[in-house]
Design goal:
- The model has no long low-confidence stretch (mean pLDDT about 95).
- With about 375 residues, the protein is an alpha/beta fold.
- It is built from 16 helices and 15 strands.
- A six-stranded parallel sheet has the order 5-2-1-6-7-8, sandwiched between helices. A three-stranded antiparallel sheet has the order 9-10-11, covered by helices on one side. A two-stranded antiparallel ribbon has the order 3-4.
- Helix 1 packs across helix 7.
């Protein structure tokens, strides 16, 4: 059987970005078949090489760097050096996409802003992520994930009513901004295939996290701007009534989503819940209902409650640790893990591209590059 071509094969992407948001966008383009060349400073490279998670390091770089820069080529040069400019312009002239996520003004000082790059290559798709855009009092603020979660309001929706606002335990703002940049780049590539015109794609972390909250923000704005109240018991969504939340059981935890309290009372044999007959009570008296559930579900195991709820199609799930998840057949059948290798044989496990096209799973064993690893082969290519 002939090997299926990945949809972006033949495209060249120059990745000037650092940390997580920009590199994650370039990674997804790479997963889908594009050739991605990561441009870094000599010697120090991407700051993310030394941005550690749990102080875990492999082959001199953080696991975070490895995970978001796999399947890329490494090219190092001094962006401020005049001799490097000739090489850089050669690369830009051949590129289809450029990705960067510096603070506003940095690429202009390097003469690598869109207007300058467009003169070198009018057909290029120039993708940019900033923290807050180019206007307003926040434009020069540090665009860091926790800070964006905090000022965007998303942290207010997490945690119980008696707790301080809680951030999500992921760099969700960086990742959603990367996803949105990829969407803009792909749309622009489609437009270029029709018109032959390149364009400038801009995403900010702030706009990305605001869009992520479109559901709750829309509700707030159309509810006379009344702030929602977090549940004081097992809060999971500020706008949803009981039983929505995660509950402790005798040996673990169980998640309950939307559902009828009357049906739930019958299924789990909880007499105290049967007095809440009206759906309006499930919102107005959610803390009282959830308090009853909280105590009742502790009386037996997660497996027992699932055995009552799942056959009735009541929306529920076991709350798993990563260990239990990875051992479950439901996870194994997805084939989500791949092993990647550096040139020196260093290997690590990571996730694969989650997108399937025509049933094909996209994997690559190519690990992240060392600083300047492909300098000579790229220079040879440019001079040939």
């Amino acid at each position: 059987m002939m090997k299926q071509t990945k949809p972006l094969e033949g495209l060249l992407v120059l990745d000037f970005s650092q940390f997580l948001s920009g590199p994650s966008a370039a990674l997804r383009l790479s997963d889908l078949g594009a050739r991605v060349i990561k441009i870094e400073k000599p010697e120090s490279g991407d700051i993310c090489r030394s941005l550690y998670i749990s102080n875990l390091e492999l082959d001199g770089d953080s696991t975070l760097f490895h995970s978001i820069n796999r399947n890329k080529e490494g090219f190092s040069l001094d962006l401020k050096d005049n001799d490097s400019r000739v090489v850089l312009e050669q690369l830009i002239s051949k590129a289809d996409v450029l990705v960067e996520n510096f603070r506003p003004g940095v690429m202009e000082r390097l003469n690598l802003d869109y207007e300058t790059v467009k003169k070198i290559n009018p057909e290029i798709i120039y993708g940019e992520i900033t923290g807050y855009g180019y206007e307003g009092p926040w434009k020069d603020k540090i665009g860091q994930d926790l800070l964006l979660q905090s000022l965007s309001g998303i942290s207010y929706t997490n945690g119980d009513a008696n707790q301080p606002p809680l951030p999500l335990g992921l760099s969700i703002v960086d990742m959603i901004a990367g996803v949105q940049l990829v969407q803009g780049i792909l749309a622009s590539l489609v437009r270029r295939s029709i018109s032959g015109m390149g364009c400038y794609v801009q995403v900010s972390l702030l706009e990305a996290v605001l869009d992520l909250q479109f559901e709750v923000l829309t509700t707030y704005m159309n509810d006379d701007f009344q702030l929602p109240e977090r549940s004081s018991v097992n809060n999971a969504n500020v706008y949803l009534g009981a039983p929505y939340g995660i509950y402790e059981t005798q040996n673990g935890h169980i998640a309950l989503a939307m559902g009828s309290i009357i049906e739930l009372a019958e299924l789990i044999h909880c007499e105290r819940l049967k007095e809440f007959k009206k759906p309006k009570q499930w919102f107005d008296e959610r803390d009282q209902i959830k308090s009853i559930l909280k105590e009742h579900l502790k009386t037996d195991t997660t497996k027992y409650w699932l055995s009552l709820l799942e056959p009735a199609d009541f929306w529920c799930a076991e709350v798993m640790t990563w260990k239990k998840l990875l051992e479950h057949e439901g996870f194994k059948v997805l084939d989500m893990i791949q092993k990647i290798y550096r040139e020196n044989g260093m290997s690590m496990l990571t996730t694969r591209c989650p997108i399937r096209i025509d049933g094909q799973i996209y994997k690559s064993e190519i690990g992240s590059p060392t600083i300047g690893q492909h300098n000579q082969s790229i220079l040879d290519e440019l001079s040939s």
